[in-house]
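Tokens for chain A. Residues wanted.
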């Protein structure tokens, strides 16, 4: 088992050697979507980042149980237990049942993630399917003295908890500052302390999604679902808990408090947080109105887009940034990713066709080590991709007869590029049917023939090389030019 993997742990604010609690098993919980609307590309970035992490752990031969929930109840509009729940509101707007909303957007979420070639989690529990577990956990937190009932709702007592535990352990903020900066919700607020949060919420008469509980009819708070479902499927303490960085300050902070108050233990050993996808420096979000839907990006049907980009180009664009860095959306960056993605796919195809020599000018073992070193350094995909571009350059050079490679190095090279491109980065060929492509290529070949007739060899070469980068190889015969896929 590879134990060179180092991960950045938000909890300790440093990189740590990854040592699973019970290797080779790894338990990983990632907060899933709130299914009341279409997922935007920002959400996709987080799930693609964890897909990379999951794929790499599996590649290292860990036996991973990957749990990612679906939030289909309990998520209120405000972060402070105020407002309506997101499903009921959307259901009223669209004149549908809340569960119709949930169904529609759960399917949409799955469709989008499939298009991005992400591997489904091993378990995908829903909040509504685990009401009993959540009620049990709330009961236990009350019994342990860290929660109180009031008017049919139950709240977590942050002040009491803070006397025994460090409430802000995850983000290291000063709790007095937090209290001073938190919003006073005026007379409507029945909580004792400003940082207290709901574990169970009494249902108003018009609230449809409601369940019976020891405190009357109601529904669970948002944070308790993740604590209940992660401990049910992964145990009271598991290896990795992940989510977007925006979840650390409230949702994950409260998850830790709930688990401590119930099980007297930290829920996860490593907390991994992905950074945000931004548009002109502003976080992409539904509320900011700058959220691209994946379909808009694929078709180019959005005012900020110059053209459409394919799902694998978008996936590659995301992997070209480290998951802990922000990634700013731009047409130029996507253009570059489009070229880069094709370069790697061509290299994968071309490596199969290379001839070997009796000696080698290249040492692929070193290149391979650099790829693994990058991924072992907190899943540094951009550095790994830079190394793969080097592999692609070597492949092209061998193909052009400028570099020699022996059999041993060639099989290493072939395994390296296939493992990384397909299994770890999760990229796949996006085939255009040859019959659809034919007339287009013929048209371009004619443009090139015209350039050659005009003795414009620079343009002619540019077209040949450009097509090669796109996976199309031209062969000049005496009277005509033929083409084939690389
Ligand atoms: P939500 O459906 O709003 O609960 O979000 C689902 C996941 O997407 C959470 O882990 C969020 O942290 C993450 N997320 C939301 N906006 C962005 C963004 N702009 N970039 C990356 N991740 C995001
Ligand atoms: Zn969660």
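Reply:
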């Amino acid at each position: 088992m590879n134990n060179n993997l180092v991960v950045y742990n938000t909890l300790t604010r440093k990189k740590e050697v990854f040592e699973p609690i019970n290797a080779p098993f790894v338990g990983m919980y990632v907060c899933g979507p709130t299914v009341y609307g279409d997922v935007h590309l920002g959400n996709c970035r987080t799930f693609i980042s964890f897909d990379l992490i999951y794929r790499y752990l599996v590649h290292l031969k860990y036996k991973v149980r990957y749990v990612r929930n679906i939030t289909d109840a309990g998520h209120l509009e405000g972060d402070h237990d105020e407002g309506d729940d997101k499903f009921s509101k959307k259901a009223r707007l669209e004149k549908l049942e809340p569960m119709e909303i949930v169904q529609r957007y759960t399917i949409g979420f799955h469709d989008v993630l499939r298009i991005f070639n992400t591997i489904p989690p091993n378990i995908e529990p829903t909040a509504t399917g685990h009401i009993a577990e959540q009620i049990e956990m709330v009961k236990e937190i009350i019994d342990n003295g860290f929660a109180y009932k009031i008017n049919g709702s139950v709240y977590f007592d942050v002040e009491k908890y803070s006397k025994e535990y460090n409430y802000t352990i995850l983000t290291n903020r000063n709790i007095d500052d937090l209290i001073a900066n938190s919003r006073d919700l005026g007379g409507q607020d029945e909580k004792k302390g400003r940082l207290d949060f709901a574990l169970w919420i009494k249902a108003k008469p018009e609230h449809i999604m409601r369940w019976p509980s020891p405190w009357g009819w109601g529904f669970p708070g948002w944070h308790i679902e993740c604590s209940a479902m992660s401990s049910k499927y992964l145990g009271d303490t598991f290896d990795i808990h992940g989510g977007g960085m925006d979840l650390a300050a409230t949702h994950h902070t409260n998850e830790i408090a709930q688990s401590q108050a119930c099980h007297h233990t930290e829920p996860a050993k490593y907390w991994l947080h992905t950074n945000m996808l931004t548009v002109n420096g502003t976080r992409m979000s539904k509320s900011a109105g700058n959220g691209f839907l994946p379909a808009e990006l694929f078709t180019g049907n959005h005012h900020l887009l110059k053209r459409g980009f394919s799902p694998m180009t978008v996936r590659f664009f995301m992997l070209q940034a480290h998951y802990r860095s922000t990634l700013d959306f731009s047409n130029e960056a996507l253009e570059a990713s489009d070229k880069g993605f094709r370069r790697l796919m061509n290299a994968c195809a071309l490596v199969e066709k290379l001839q070997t020599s009796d000696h080698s000018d290249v040492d692929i073992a070193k290149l391979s080590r650099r790829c693994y070193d990058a991924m072992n350094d907190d899943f540094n995909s951009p550095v790994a991709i830079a190394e793969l571009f080097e592999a692609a350059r070597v492949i092209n050079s061998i193909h052009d007869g400028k570099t020699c490679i022996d059999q041993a190095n060639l099989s290493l090279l072939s395994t390296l590029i296939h493992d990384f491109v397909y299994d770890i980065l999760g990229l796949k060929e996006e085939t255009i049917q040859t019959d659809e492509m034919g007339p287009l290529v013929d048209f371009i070949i004619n443009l090139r023939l015209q350039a050659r007739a005009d003795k414009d060899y620079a343009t002619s070469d540019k077209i040949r090389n450009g097509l090669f980068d796109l996976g199309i190889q031209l062969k000049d015969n005496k009277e005509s030019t033929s083409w084939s896929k690389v």
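Residues 31, 226, 251 surround zinc ion (ligand 2) (CB under 6 Å). The chain has three domains: 6-274, 278-424, 434-485.
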